[in-house]
Design a protein that fits this description.
GO terms for molecular function: 5-(carboxyamino)imidazole ribonucleotide mutase activity; phosphoribosylaminoimidazole carboxylase activity. This protein is of the alpha/beta class. It has six helices and five strands; from the N terminus they run βαβαβαβαβαα. The chain folds into two domains: 5-136, Rossmann fold; 138-167. A five-stranded parallel β-sheet has the order 2-1-3-4-5. It binds 5-O-phosphono-beta-D-ribofuranose (RP5).
Length: 167
């Protein structure tokens, strides 16, 4: 079995601009990942084959992004028992509400950990995958904690700047 990795699946290459945030977060934690365009609707057999193979090769978490009638995360969750994180993509006339409901409303027993619509969700998918892997990786757990502390410091610095401006 190869090194543990995260698989980032997208229903279309049109999802990539949003999902770049996920890849950036994974890179920032030195997490090995594979990114792939594969569709629950347009390439169902290839999606099934990839997920089965990825799990056998050491994939620990699947992140699945899709817009419109977004079934990629749910379809993947039906194939694997690894954790699946779903990112609803904001595209089309319903601003991602369609994708949110399609991703989050899974039947009992087949969970998809669904994050927010769009770029905040894409970012959080990366952090959530890191937190999941950190359960069994002490060095990564420290890195996640340090990143969280840095983010708190950034907010405090912004507040200090506001207070200075207000006099
Ligand atoms: C979904 O349909 C994809 O994930 C994408 O968000 C949306 C539109 O796909 P394209 O028509 O841009 O390929 O399956």
């Amino acid at each position: 079995m190869s090194k543990p990795f995260v698989a980032v699946l997208m229903g279309s290459d049109s999802d990539l601009p949003t999902m770049k945030s996920t890849l950036d977060v994974l890179k920032s934690f030195d997490i090995t990942f594979e990114a792939k365009v594969t569709s629950a609707h347009r390439t169902p057999a290839a999606t099934h084959a990839y997920v089965t193979d990825a799990e056998a090769r050491g994939c620990k978490v699947f992140i699945c992004a899709a817009g419109l009638a977004a079934h990629l995360a749910g379809a993947v969750a039906g194939i694997t028992t690894r954790p699946v994180i779903g990112v609803p993509i904001d595209c089309g006339p319903l601003q991602g509400h369609d994708a949110l409901l399609s991703t989050v409303m899974m039947p009992g027993g087949v969970p998809v950990a669904t994050v927010a619509i769009g770029s905040a969700g894409a970012k959080n998918a990366g952090y959530l995958a890191a937190q999941m892997l950190a359960v069994g990786d002490d060095a990564l757990a420290v890195a996640v904690k340090e990143e969280r502390a840095k983010s708190a410091e950034a907010v405090q610095a912004k507040d200090a700047a506001l207070q200075a401006k207000l006099g």
